[in-house]
Amino acid sequence: MPSDLLTIGYEGCTIDGVLTTLREARVGLLIDVRAVAASRKPGFSKRQLAAGLDQAGIGYLHLQRLGTPKSGRDAVRSGHPERMVPIFRAHMETPEAQWALTEAKALAVEKRCCLLCFERDHHHCHRHLVAEMIAAETGQTIDHLEVPVPRPGTLFP
Predict the structure, then answer these.
(1) Is residue 34 within 8 Å of 143, Cβ to Cβ?
(2) What is the pLDDT of residue 137?
């Protein structure tokens, strides 16, 4: 039986907090499921993230086709998050998304993987849908990691 499939969101977190959480969870490969692997948060753009993960001994793979398409992101931004799920599910029926999902499934049974996206709460992020699609075939249990967030004015959570 493969190990748990993990997910993580970096909203409100530091790169150090995310890396520590991933190391403590013994993650072997981080699968970035953002459609756009860029971020204004230091350390979370694709190249910076990959370099930080490499230093931590964790692999990195960006599967862009597992990200929410622009129309889904626009729906959330315009105050209609309920529209994102059907848009995302339709997107996942495309051959490109199915190929990426097949790759993620294969990797998830080979090594301890964690899916990354922005939103802290997995209930408000498409990554829980991707995790459910993977686990439906692999039989894995899904574990949503939470990164301790520093309280304002302190160095530690």
Answers:
(1) no
(2) 95
